[in-house]
Specification:
Elements (H helix, E strand, L loop, with lengths): L2 H20 L4 E2 L1 E2 L10 H4 L5 E9 L3 E9 L10 E10 L2 E4 L5 E4 L6 E3 L2 E12 L4 E9 L7 E2 L11 E2 L6 E10 L16 E3 L3 E2 L1 E7 L3 H29 L1
Antiparallel strand pairs: 1-16, 2-12, 3-10, 3-13, 4-9, 4-16, 5-6, 5-7, 5-10, 8-9, 11-15, 13-14
Helix pairs in contact: 1-3
Length: 245
């Protein structure tokens, strides 16, 4: 193979490897579009002030959660109420709250940061979710006018529906949801998953963003790519030196 062709191949591999290692970025997993219908009366209709609701997902590629959020219809704020969100992890048959992911939203729209119809909060420290783990994103204090939630059957979703983003396959939605009719807001989300109902269609109440951690192979390829770039630069300098001699 001619040297010039070898250099082109090495250069191409180097660029591809660098792009692969740098491609990871934060993506919101559960996206609620503005104008989405919200179920805001089920809790009160059944004699509860509000309840906790969440859906499960699996982590295929380890990564970090930088933000958590809740569905807030048309970015309207939370009035005199509040809504809490946290991520839970399944360990054996027991769900436990992932430390550092709990946050309570409250106040008018101006007091919160929004992405579409979701109020988002940046965590103090990014929280790692491990590959192979089963998790759930859970919101509490929902089912009221200020803090509605979405599900696939009640009310009719109309033309606006939430979308689940797998973040390039790093996450898988398990299509399992649960709720807990707690009778009053549960500010620390201590009673999820629900004892009142488990369903096979997803709810949309809480969300989070996720940044996959590039796999070791990607870093290795990036290293090889960098070495290739170094080789190309040194070869080019050597050729110029030989021509000048």
């Amino acid at each position: 193979m001619r040297t010039s062709n070898s250099m082109r191949i090495i250069g191409g591999v180097a660029v591809a490897a660098l792009l692969m290692a740098a491609q990871a970025q934060a993506t919101i997993a559960w996206n609620m579009p503005i104008g989405l219908a919200g179920n805001d009366n089920y809790a009160s209709a059944h004699g509860y002030a509000s309840y906790d609701v969440g859906n499960e997902f699996k982590v295929n590629t380890a990564g970090y959660v930088n933000e958590v959020g809740v569905f807030n219809l048309n970015d309207q704020g939370f009035g005199s109420g509040s809504e809490v969100v946290a991520i839970f992890q399944l360990n054996g048959s027991t769900w436990s709250q992932v430390s550092g992911t709990l946050h309570t939203f409250s106040g008018p729209a101006s007091a919160n940061t929004y992405v579409n119809s979701e109020a988002m909060f940046t965590l103090t420290t990014p929280v790692k979710l491990n590959a192979g783990g089963t998790y759930a994103i859970v919101a509490g204090g929902g089912g009221t006018t200020a803090n509605p939630y979405w599900n696939s059957t009640q009310p009719s979703p109309g033309t606006k529906t939430p979308t689940w983003n797998s973040v390039g396959g790093a996450l898988s939605q398990l299509n399992t949801a649960a709720w807990y009719l707690g009778g009053s807001p549960d500010p620390n989300l201590t009673k999820w998953p629900g004892v009142s109902g488990v369903y096979t269609f997803p709810y949309g109440a809480g969300t989070f963003d996720f940044t996959p951690v590039p796999e070791v192979a990607a870093f290795g390829a990036a290293g090889v790519g960098l070495l290739g770039l170094v080789y190309i630069v040194r070869y080019a300098r050597l050729r110029r030196t030989m021509k000048l001699a």
